[in-house]
Design brief:
It is a single chain. It contains 3 helices and 5 strands, in the order βαβββαβα. By secondary structure, the chain is an alpha/beta fold. It has one domain: Peptidoglycan recognition protein-like (Lysozyme-like, 3-Layer(aba) Sandwich), CATH 3.40.80.10. The longest helix is centred in the C-terminal third of the chain and has 17 residues. The two termini are 25 Å apart.
């Protein structure tokens, strides 16, 4: 179980697909991996809807070695995220940052344990452009 005081990272991911996936699709896929369900705490679909993933008190399955100290959000897509998605990401990260003020906002690729480019943009630069303290 996650303790709010232990949240050190707010991690942005992408699905690395062009599909119109939903949180339910990802949940089914992650169950197929033998996991306990969806690994992310939130999913932002193409129209900007923020769908619930794991509850914020439940450790995720999204950043190797850091799941007990992070929350994860997944943008559906690979590179061409919609303005609605980015606005929703802005809203979600501001909400999370208010709840977890000491947490650092970062991309999945910012962790040395991953070789992925996910979320395929520089999260710190994007946060700065939005006036969000990463």
């Amino acid at each position: 179980m996650l303790n709010a005081d232990d949240i050190r990272y707010l991690v942005v991911h992408c699905s690395d697909t062009e599909d119109d996936l939903t949180a339910a699709n990802i949940h089914a896929m992650h169950l197929g991996f033998g996991w306990h369900g969806i690994g992310y705490h939130a999913v932002i679909i193409k129209d900007g809807t923020i769908e619930q993933g794991r509850p914020p008190y439940w450790a995720g399955a999204h950043v190797y070695g850091h799941n007990t100290e992070s929350l994860g959000v997944c943008l559906i897509g690979r590179h061409d995220f919609t303005s609605e998605q980015m606005d929703a990401l802005d809203t979600l990260l501001r909400e999370w940052k208010a709840r977890y003020p000491n947490a650092q906002i970062c991309g999945h690729c910012d962790f040395p344990e991953t070789e992925k480019t996910c979320p395929n943009f520089d999260v710190a630069t994007w946060c700065k452009s939005r006036g969000i303290k990463a």
